[in-house]
Structures are given as C-alpha cells and as structure tokens.
Design a protein that fits this description.
- It is a single chain.
- The chain is an all-alpha fold.
- The chain folds into two domains: 5-133, Four Helix Bundle (Hemerythrin (Met), subunit A) (Up-down Bundle); 151-238, no CATH class.
- Helices cover 65% and strands 0% of the residues.
- It is built from eleven helices and no strands.
- The protein has helices at 8-23, 26-48, 52-55, 62-67, 71-81, 91-107, 115-133, 151-171, 182-191, 200-215, 225-238.
- Helix 1 (8-23) runs antiparallel to helix 2 and helix 1 packs antiparallel against helix 7 (115-133).
- The chain starts with 7 loop residues before the first helix and ends with a helix.
Length: 242
C-alpha cells in the first residue's frame, strides 16, 4: 500500500537519517541524531493533528495542540490521547535522546554522539513510526552487529506488549495504563488472577534484554537470541486469547 500522505514527511526524515548512519562518521552521526529527533517530533505532531475520523479515537483540542510548544508537551499529549500506540515505546527514553539532540544542535561543533545512541534512537523512531501509521519501517541499520537483537525479537516483543495492554484495558479499568510499565500491567493481571505468575521471572528477564537493546548498556550474546525468542513466544501464548 502507498504511504499515507501525512506520514511522508517523517518517513523522509528517517530515510535522511539512515543515509547518514551508513557513513558512520562523527559528523554523520550528529546529523543522523538530529534528523531522527525531527522525524519523531514530526510523526507525533502529524498523528495528533489528524482528523478524528482518521485516528478513530479522541483527539487533542486545537488549543491543546497550540499549547504543545515544546517536545515534552507533545509527548504528554501522545501519552494522554494515544497510549495504545506506545507498545514497545518508552517515552522516557525518547525524551532522554531528545536532550542529546538538543546538546548537539545548540552547542555546535566539537560535540559528538555515540553511534550506539544513534542506532538505538533510530530503532525507537522506527517502531513509533510503525505504531502511529501502521507502516513498517526497517528497524535495523547497516551498522547492526551480532550483539543487536534481530527484528523478530522486536516484532514479538511489541506483539506481547500489545496483548498485555489489551488485557489490562479489559480487566484493569482503574489502572492508569499510560503511566504504567508493561511489568506493572502484568503484575496487575496476576493480582486479578487473570494470568498465572509462572512466567513473571521470564518476562522480567526479557524486559531487561529489551532495554539493553535500546540503551546498549550490556552486550547481548547472539547465541542466546533463539532462546530469547522462544521464551517470548511462551509468555505470549500463556496469555488469554480473548
């Protein structure tokens, strides 16, 4: 299917960033980081400004959109009106990477950015683009190494988050899902006896692996990737199907 017109601008910015990522120089990493951040901001604003009949959900008022003059305000609106679009997304991480972008943009020459941060932000931006516009953007970059989780893990993790969020919406109506981690929602479902606690330790481990993927805080043993994916599947299929 052709790309929706309101998604074209963000897609072009991601393409621009990906082109610089391939070059892997200090200059290109700076430009890529700025372009990724611009893509994230444009994607969120374009999505929130869509007519209600396209979004199929309540939208921010014109006044709220006009008042969202900075990046954190925009994240707040996305969380308030479209928390169902945040599967696989940590808004705190996006805001942290945005601060890195601001440092690069405002402090000029001589400031560098770690290529791992560029790769991680690019992956987050790609998942966000997919969530908002239902149009998949390749979530690996040319520099991905064997320590980086493959798309299959991210796809299955996102599916797991969506299933847990769906169950929380159904069985935990009093939960503030927009401000709860996936682990908190899972614990709430256990407390309500909707699911068993059998796979809680497994989910905790996979959650840490997922975070290390985005933040590059630890190396990931590529020999264990297949087992991680199987564990993800076991957790997913243990959940109620309704």
């Amino acid at each position: 299917m052709p790309l929706k017109p309101w998604a074209i601008g963000a897609r072009e910015l991601l393409d621009h960033a990906n082109g610089h990522i391939k070059s892997n120089t200090a200059f290109d990493n700076r430009i890529a980081m700025i372009s990724i951040d611009n893509a994230v901001e444009l994607a969120i604003r374009s999505f929130l400004e869509l007519p209600k009949r396209i979004r199929n959900e309540k939208s921010p008022s014109r006044n709220e959109l006009e008042q969202a003059i900075n990046f954190p305000n925009l994240l707040d609106l996305l969380e308030k009106y479209s928390s169902n679009k945040l599967s696989g997304i940590d808004l705190g991480s996006i805001e942290w990477y945005h601060r890195i972008r601001n440092t690069l943009y405002h402090m000029g020459n001589g400031i560098t950015v770690d290529s791992q941060h560029v790769d991680s932000y690019f992956k987050i931006a790609s998942i966000l683009f997919d969530n908002l516009f239902q149009d998949s953007y390749e979530t690996t970059t040319p520099k991905d190494s064997e320590n980086i989780l493959p798309n299959e893990f991210i796809i299955k993790w996102t599916a797991l988050e969506r299933r847990i969020s769906f169950l929380a919406h159904k069985y935990l109506p009093k939960f503030d899902r927009g401000n709860r981690s996936i682990l908190s929602l899972y614990d709430g479902l256990i407390e309500k006896e909707i699911i068993s606690s059998k796979y809680r330790p497994t989910l905790d481990k996979l959650y840490k692996i997922r975070n290390s993927y985005f933040h590059s805080s630890i190396n990931i043993d590529s020999k264990l990737i297949d087992e991680y994916i199987k564990e993800l599947e076991r957790v997913f299929y243990s959940l109620p199907k309704e």
